[in-house]
Amino acid sequence: MTDLTLKDLDDALVERINTFAAAQGWGQARTLRFLLEQGLRACTGDERSSFDPEEDTVLAAAISALEQVPDDTFALIGRSGTAVDARAPGAQAG
Q: What's the predicted TM-score (pTM) here?
């Protein structure tokens, strides 16, 4: 594995890295590897999943199920029974 040395980093950036590392319970080296990997994916548009194959399958099934939910269903969240949209399947004003 290759060692890299970063020079002339802004103190605020170093503090953000250290804060992130502490929040994750990771050391600085692990944190920097993670941040570089995530940053590179974001910059290159690499959409490869970091999930294992079983997690990928579960996530794909959840997304597929959500895609089958009618668009207006989530609009009903938080509404009282009297404010329910009558267009929604099974909706009752009351």
A: 0.49
Q: What is the 3-state secondary structure (H, E, C) of 40-74?
A: HHHHHCCCCCCCCHHHHHHHHHHHHHHHCCCCCHH
Query: pLDDT 10s per residue in the chain (94 long)?
Result: 788 898 999 999 999 999 999 999 999 999 999 999 889 888 887 766 677 788 888 988 998 988 887 777 677 777 766 555 555 555 555 4
29 φ, ψ (degrees, to nearest 5) = -65, -45
CA 29 to chain centre: 23
* Size of the chain, expressed as the number of residues it contains: 94
Q: What is the C-alpha separation between 35 and 13, in angstroms, rounded?
A: 12
DSSP secondary structure letter of residue 93 = -
